[in-house]
Amino acid sequence: MAPERTPYCAERIGVARLTKMAFDGIDLHPLWDELMDKVTDDAAGAGIGMDLSVIAQLLGDQQTGLAMQNEVLQYQRLFRSPCETPRLRLLALAADMDIGENTPIEFLLEGSDIELTTLYIVPGADHELPPYDVAMVVAPNSSLATLAEIDRLMAGRPLLNSPSGIRALERDRLFVLLESVPDLIIPATARLSHEELAGLAANPAGLGSMLPNGGFPLIVRPVGSHAGRGLAKLENAEDLERYLMFQDASEFFLSPYVDYLSSDGLFRKYRLACVGGKPYACHMAISDQWKIWYLNAGMDRNAAKRAEEAHFFQTFDSDFAVRHASALAEMIKRIGLDYFQVDCAETQDGKLLVFEADNTAIVHAMDPPAVYPYKPPQMHKLFDAFAGMIHHNAPRSEAGRRSASSR
Question: CB of 178 within 8 A of CB of 354?
Fold first, then answer.
């Protein structure tokens, strides 16, 4: 019997290491020049090409970065990220998208014994599966063609984070999935075209037919946007009309605004990661503005905010996770993914308020320990749980691993 052919796998520095360099303020231009001198237009140079694509995006030139990635993926789609002591092989199935779209899984494997191989799925192309122990989908819910191709390619094979579960994370679908969970609030969400929103601006009376108990104020954002791009709060139809003057997206998500202001006049937003059915705290952002992200909350400049976040980490398992135990458990059960993140808050009457669930939000340990000494233990607790979940899903014997790789 002829030996099984193993597809060529290109080596690369990887997204996590390059992002950490940029995060630490290291000038990436010298590395760019060095790699440009080494890159070749073939499979052997493909890993360098992908690293150059990442560097270009980190330097703010997304167009060049994506063009380089697209060129590389024409002839090489399988890449290996560094691992010092590999004991298990994880195959990540990714989409041909920018560095912020796929699950940034390299960060989660920091310090583990899991070797990561990433296969970029290009719809319509041929794909060869390499030997692996566990396979996981890291493509986002916005890449429907990629998810369909993964369904076809992995039919009948064990797979973490199934495409069907990822598709259910779209905001309008997630609302339908979670709206009946007791003690959980998720704003009703409608998906509307640009034309439908314009019609609503002209005739606000139609809002009731689009959203249950619909009324201003509303939250609007373009479909597929992240990190607050295009996000706005609308107080009336005139606000909506003005909003559309500066938006060229074809579709939008519309939902009622839910006030989650705390009694001290501040807003608190939490990110949780759900690993193998258990929630873990990732961060807590505190701001006097309702539109919060960790990067705009000024946590690094406010010791009192950091002290509260540290307390949130320390007491999460005995406080927040206990108070919302039934809502979290039912939410995790209904979503059904092996790994995902949730951005949430608490309503003024103490219920769990879910803004979104995602499989691709970044979870990392890059924040400086001198400023955030409480973060490394929490992040590595989460990383250990993720590695444990991967190991738990690996076949138990060498024969089983060979079987998983060749099925």
Answer: yes
Question: How far is 382 from 362, CA to CA, in rounded Å?
Answer: 13
Q: Is 120 exposed, middle or buried (0-12, 13-18, 19+ CB in 10 A)?
A: buried
pLDDT tens digits, residue range 202-258?
888 778 778 877 788 999 999 877 767 889 999 999 999 999 988 888 999 999 999
First to last CA, the chain: 16
Single-letter code of the amino acid located at 222: P
- The mean pLDDT value of the chain amounts to 92
Helix (H) or strand (E) holding 391: helix 375-392
- What pLDDT, on a 0 to 100 scale, did the predictor assign at position 402? 40
CATH of the domain at 213: 3.30.1490.20
Count of domains for the chain: 3
Q: Is the peptide bond before 217 cis (omega within 30 degrees of 0)?
A: yes
Same domain for 177 and 102? no
Contacts of 259 (CB under 8 A, 6+ apart): 290, 348
For the full predicted model, state whether its pTM sits above 0.90: yes
Candidates 278, 291, 275; CA nearest to 355 is 291
